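Example record

One chain of 355 residues, shown exactly as stored in the release files.
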Amino acid sequence: MDRVILDEWHVVAALESLLPGREFSTRLLDTDLTLARPAGDIVAAWPAASGKALPVCVRHGHVWTTLGTPPRPLFDLPFPVIAAGSVATGVPADRVLDAFLADGAVTPHPYCVLREQSAAGVFIQPVGNNRCIVHLLARDKAGQAAARLEFAALKPILESQAPEARPQPGTGAWYPVASSSDLTPRHIFHTALAGQELAVWRDDAGLANVWENRCPHRGVRLTIGTNLGTALRCQYHGWEFASGTGRCAILPARVTTYPCVERHGLVWTSLAGAPENIPDLGTAHWQPVRAISVEAPLSAVAGELPEQEGLKLFLQPISGSQTVIHGLSNDPAVSLRQHDDMLTRLRDRIEGSTA
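Predicted structure tokens for this chain:
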């Protein structure tokens, strides 16, 4: 466990949920805790395994403790808040945090988000790697109901976004996933990388986006939705996700986005979000040739690529059994049609040898 996280103050309960004279069990960072409230704002906390007392702070209507040594007192808030309920979720704390981060939100603590509205934000209790408890906050009594309704709608969305194990074709690798010319106005281009379906599109300002091809609400493919020029609209319930951030305009939810760079007429991305690692082809003008899909794994295709002056070839592993060849040409003596014929013959030879 990161020492910095251990040394933080962490929320472990709303004070109002602790009944005087009764013990309360909870969990923090994979550690079982017991809390007790003898009277008033006096609260004790200790690990269930050792019984050794932990530091405790009662502020902002909640109980805080730490498994380490906090370097500073608990943070102040810019405005008063009241507890609006606590909800256990089957997702990591950082996923909930990310969902609530929006324009104007502030984060006075690594697991706290505050907003200038009646449903004021959340304190997040990291239970373990893939679970957390969300302590809802409100500015007033009316905001309590709004906070509960908002999170009741958001919780199934977050839990449906639980990450799946997907094959990574290479550590820190960037791959082309489309030609710039594939991203025509108000179009959504459907492709995939290492088994992950992608929606690739351009907004009206010219910004290219590479997103997971899945609405976080019901999992509908975004490629059957609508490119509005500033956002994608899901076909199912009409939720809209903003270009660049992927954030929903209706609820604090967002599409999974991937880094995107346009270079040499190709659109590049990395599923791992690795630092940019795109081949440097100098200042020469490169013209994309027609991409060719090959029914063979990346390793089989890579071993058959020809070396040809004025032609650069790059591979996009669609899945474990399908690869797309992207080509760039800067040789005016060879037509794009000739390159296309050569790549078609190459595809036929590879598929014939792996059949």
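Notes: The domain at 284-355 is CATH 3.30.70 (Alpha-Beta Plaits).
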